[in-house]
Design brief:
The complex is a heterodimer of chains A (about 625) and B (about 325).
Chain A (H helix, E strand, L loop, with lengths): L6 H26 L7 H19 L4 H7 L16 H5 L6 H30 L9 H34 L8 H20 L24 H29 L12 H33 L14 H33 L6 H14 L18 H10 L1 H15 L8 H18 L2 H4 L1 H7 L3 H31 L5 H27 L16 H31 L31 E2 L14 E2 L11
Antiparallel strand pairs in A: 1-2
Helix pairs in contact in A: 1-2, 2-7, 5-6, 5-7, 5-19, 6-7, 6-8, 6-10, 6-17, 7-8, 8-9, 9-10, 9-11, 10-11, 10-13, 10-14, 10-17, 11-13, 14-17, 14-18, 17-18, 18-19
Chain B lengths: L1 H23 L11 H32 L17 H29 L7 E8 L2 E6 L4 E3 L2 E4 L4 E7 L4 E4 L6 E4 L8 E5 L5 E7 L11 E7 L1 H13 L5 H11 L25 E3 L5 E3 L2 H9 L23 H13 L2
Parallel strand pairs in B: 1-5, 4-10
Antiparallel strand pairs in B: 1-2, 2-3, 5-8, 6-7, 6-9, 9-10, 11-12
Helix pairs in contact in B: 1-2, 2-3, 5-7, 6-7
Classes of the chains: A mainly alpha (about 625), B alpha+beta (about 325).
Chain lengths: ~625, ~325
């Protein structure tokens, strides 16, 4: 197998060529317009856009579509795979939802490590007061990238889990649009490259939120790459969401009513509804700033007829619901795993299922709570305070239902269960630290302090990172056919849990004592030096725990104990298949005949894997 | 039933521990304004609710982990309990009532924070990358320190000459963004200091390279001290252009980026600048004279010194008269 036949390699080569072509084209156009040929920003942006397009062409993901344009017929998507396995398969073009899920997952983890590395660097700087080794411009770039790259990582992680699990859980063999699925995944690769290129192109210093007029500052070309990259990641998110929604509505197997779907499918659906309808707003807002930079259009510049606050409304209309994209998926994982290790039904299945839609719905009406001090119309503040606190109601239903699930259960504490329990406690901390920011009066103090940093790290770790780890451990045998190492899994948990509490509580405390967000240096007279040092140490322990995780994964993939089909005695469909799951998930469409979480009920079957071989029911 | 009582006891103990810990830990800076009072009261209420709810869920969880673990060798499932509609309705309605109550109390507190006095002291607060300027229109005073009389409400009118900044003094609690682009975007903030002392205003909205360092001193003084400060400032008249220029560059925040002693900064240093040949970013070079400096202050983007970024906001010197610009040039000329 030649190296150039691998989609990733071809894509990268094409991206380089396309970027150069786009830059030359810009120079040519500028010459035709009578301008000096070279201007860095327009050349780089056009180059970047061409680079992404040619990357996609290079991967051959467009081939079938291009044939259709020419009226050529193409065979059905081929899932059976004969080529070499391992990383070569993962770097190649595949239309199999399981492979795409794993591709998303591995990309997510690589990007997660990168963003974590950024955090390590600036946390080292913040361990003691004074500027040690990071000049402020680099510091600002690193915190901005830490934020946006982590968000990219979480979006990829969400896509990984929903791509892998949704078709399996609803009993079908692939997504509704396999080619679109592959397209949506591959779009992320060049986009992440653009995002990282920000470092080498002068950086950016407005945080991941990129508020203009600061982000319209022409001195820093990094902003242009940031806006372009996020635009493509957003496009991927929209296409992925479309696919999940269609798949869930159209491809459920016989008997799979909505109220027989596993909770994870419910949360994936709620998540996809948000992504499909809100992502446009961040795309739009970033596109407008990019046009402001490239063409001098003053959408957010009052001197040119714009409005500086308008950006924040557009931005948060997506970026608040986006938070629920991450956490709803994570909460879905919690609801999925908890009953298995409690050997008890999920308490109040319908309430938990519908609460996800409730959170998604209310999530659309709360965005302006990020703007209480922004100088928006003052009368908007109180209604947004009410809507914001309402989110606590459906979220509360989930917490109480989880407690109802474990209460009186027969709990075992394998690594996935530990991560799920840890997730609940950390998400609780994150959730409960929310109302002080949601009430206007206290937010006037808390806004843009480290309290906020502590709050959202707790919601993201509890709502996404811990559940993501739990999910990887839990479905590892289905993905690889091998077991992870239980000792290393538990070691990771016992490193990350206490470290995270130290970090998050420390951040909240220094925020209350007066430390602002996003500052390269802090005032030692605030009396927060000890806490800062502890936060940094805790951050490094979290880093260490992730290394333990990585070692566990890499070793277990090759040398782990061979996994049985259903190591957790789960009722879910995917655990009724062999480990690893065969290329064509189900030999024949299974039939759902019961409830997903009926643990402890005698003879309560959930699914009939071979409905055709059953004798017809007697009259 | 015995499980419920034991778990309830655990929740009570954990709540008590949580409340005790909250008492013992430093949580907020000194309370130094009238507006801080309703905010701190709301904090205290919320922290208590948080302590209870955290203890409630974590208590149940810890209890379950200890008492509902699987016995060795027991492979059977637990009791089949699908849920309880009555409980679900209960834990929907009780949180709903709680959040409505907190929102109501929150709105009351906001009302108290926003209460305006009839005759406040007006101060125009202007943020620039990366300095603050305070103008007292009633007295025609410009200052780089915010002087406030105690127990008198100050009406701060916030604006910015470049990007979004945010005005925050932790001891006073309240915060408001300062927006660029003119009168329409001026935002107000009322503060009534209640404690004499020295504080610092800090920019709370990331505003570029030196954001972390965008601070200015705040002094809360007695009315008598404030009156004599006003008198001192208004009586103070400068005739020497160099001295006048020196005061202006501090007031307008020029020295945030341009050092006067050769220290490298975000902008070119002024030491030895006048009369030198500067290399520009387009490869040409230019003699630094009064004309060049005038252009660079009025139209900062016109010529960019090689190695520096075009980030000086054009509006930064909009408040300067031509005479004042001349004073600044005279001051730069004096820095040899």
């Amino acid at each position: 197998m030649k190296i150039t036949s691998i989609a990733l390699v071809r894509g990268l080569i094409f991206q380089v060529i396309g970027t150069i072509f786009g830059m030359l084209l810009t120079m040519l156009l500028r010459l035709v317009m009578g301008l000096p040929a070279w201007k860095a920003e327009p050349a780089l942006v056009v180059g970047a856009i061409f680079g992404v397009a040619t990357f996609m062409y290079g991967t051959k993901v467009l081939d079938d579509w291009l044939k259709w344009v020419n009226g050529e017929e193409t065979p059905e998507v081929e899932v059976e795979y004969q080529g070499p396995g391992g990383w070569r398969r993962l770097a190649s073009l595949s239309f199999d939802h399981k492979v795409i899920g794993v591709q998303y997952g591995i990309t997510s983890l690589i990007v997660f490590l990168l963003a974590g590395l950024f955090a390590m660097v600036f946390r080292t700087e913040l361990a003691t007061p004074g500027i040690q080794f990071l000049v402020p411009d680099v510091f600002n770039t690193l915190i901005s990238l830490h934020g946006i790259v982590m968000i990219g990582s979480m979006l990829l992680g969400v896509a990984a889990m929903s791509n892998y699990l949704v078709p399996l859980m609803i009993g079908t063999n692939d997504m509704a649009f396999p080619r679109l699925n592959a397209f949506a995944f591959w779009l992320n690769v060049p986009a992440v490259i653009l995002l990282v290129s920000v470092i080498f192109l002068g950086g950016m210093d407005a945080g991941w939120t990129g508020y203009p007029p600061l982000s319209a500052n022409l001195g820093k070309i990094g902003f242009a790459m940031f806006f372009t990259a996020v635009y493509f990641i957003g496009l991927s998110s929209i296409l992925g969401a479309l696919n999940i929604i269609t798949t869930t509505i159209r491809l459920r197997t016989k008997g799979m009513n909505y109220f027989r779907m596993p909770i994870f499918v419910w949360t994936a659906l709620a998540t996809a509804l948000i992504s499909l309808t809100a992502t446009q707003l961040i795309g739009l807002s970033f596109q407008l700033v990019l046009f402001e930079r490239l063409f001098g259009m003053g959408f957010f510049n009052p001197n040119l007829g714009g409005n500086v606050i308008l950006f924040q409304h557009l931005f948060w209309f997506y970026s608040h619901p986006a938070v629920y994209v991450f956490i709803l998926t994570g909460l879905g994982v919690i609801s999925e795993i908890l009953p298995v290790f409690s050997r008890k039904p999920l308490f109040g299945y319908k309430w938990v299922a519908l609460s996800s839609l409730g959170i998604a719905l209310v999530g659309f009406f709360v965005w302006a709570h990020h703007m209480f001090t922004s100088g928006m119309e003052s009368y908007l503040r109180v209604p947004f305070m009410y809507s914001t606190l309402l989110v606590a109601v459906p979220t509360g239903i989930k917490f109480f239902s989880w407690m109802g699930t474990i209460w009186g259960g027969k709990l075992t504490f394998k690594t996935p269960m530990l991560f799920v329990l840890g997730a609940i406690s950390i998400f609780l901390l994150g959730g409960l630290s929310g109302p002080p920011n949601g009430t206007v009066a206290t937010d006037l103090f808390l806004h843009d302090t480290y309290w906020i940093v502590g709050h959202f790290h707790a919601t993201m770790f509890g709502g996404f990172v811990f559940p993501f780890f739990a999910a990887i451990y839990y479905w590892f045998p289905k993905i690889t056919g091998r077991m992870y190492n239980e000792k290393l899994g538990k070691l990771q948990f016992w490193l990350i849990l206490p470290a995270f509490y130290v970090q998050s509580l420390g951040q909240m405390q220094v925020g209350l004592l007066g430390m602002r967000r996003r500052i390269a240096d802090y005032d030692p007279t605030l009396g927060i030096t000890l806490q800062q040092t502890l936060i940094t140490i805790a951050g490094f322990v979290i880093g260490l725990s992730v290394i333990v995780f990585a070692i566990n994964m890499i070793v277990s993939v090759r040398k782990g104990e061979i996994a049985v089909a259903n190591p957790w005695r789960s009722r879910s469909l995917e655990f009724q298949l062999a480990s690893p799951i065969p290329d064509h998930n189900y030999e024949e469409p299974p039939e759902v005949i019961g409830q997903p979480y009926d643990y402890g009920k005698q003879d309560a079957e959930y699914v009939d894997m071979h409905p055709s071989s059953q004798p017809a029911a007697a009259d | 039933m015995k499980h419920f009582i034991a778990a309830a006891l655990l929740v009570i103990v954990l709540t008590a521990l949580g409340l005790f810990a909250l008492e013992r830990v430093d949580l907020l800076p000194v309370q130094a304004s009238l507006q801080a009072v309703p905010i701190d009261d709301l904090f205290s209420l919320q922290f208590k609710i948080i302590a209870f709810l955290f203890a409630l869920i974590v208590g149940i969880m810890i209890y379950s982990i200890i008492f509902f673990r699987r016995k060795k060798g027991d492979d059977s499932d637990a009791a089949h309990i699908e849920g309880s509609t009555r409980l679900e309705v209960f834990w929907t309605l009780v949180p709903l009532a709680t959040v409505l109550y907190i929102s109501y109390v929150g709105a009351q507190a906001l009302g108290a924070v926003q209460r305006e006095d009839p005759f406040p002291l007006q101060v125009d607060v202007i943020g620039s990358q990366w300095s603050w300027r305070f103008e007292y229109p009633e007295y025609d005073i410009i200052s780089t320190e915010l002087m406030l009389p105690v127990d008198k409400q100050a009406l701060l009118r916030l604006s910015s000459t470049d990007v979004i900044h945010s005005f925050w003094i932790p001891e006073f609690r309240v915060k408001q963004d300062a927006l660029p682009s003119g009168e329409e975007f001026v935002r107000e903030l009322t503060i009534t200091p209640t404690e004499l002392g020295n504080y610092r205003v800090r920019c709370a909205e990331l505003c570029g390279t030196l954001h972390y360092d965008m601070r200015a001193p705040v002094v809360v003084m007695t009315q008598a001290d404030f009156d004599s400060w006003i008198e001192e400032q208004t009586a103070f008249e400068v005739t020497d252009p160099v001295q006048s220029g020196q005061i202006l560059v501090e007031q307008f925040g020029c020295t945030a980026c341009h050092s006067v002693d050769g220290t490298p900064g975000v902008g070119p240093t002024w030491q030895g600048l006048f009369g030198s040949q500067e290399e520009l970013s387009d490869g040409t070079s230019v003699l630094v004279d009064a004309e060049y400096l005038y252009e660079s202050i009025r139209e900062p983007g016109a010529k960019i010194t090689n190695g520096f970024q075009n980030i000086m906001p054009p509006e930064i010197g909009a408040g300067l008269s031509d005479e004042q610009v001349d004073d600044i040039i005279a001051y730069i000329e004096s820095l040899q």
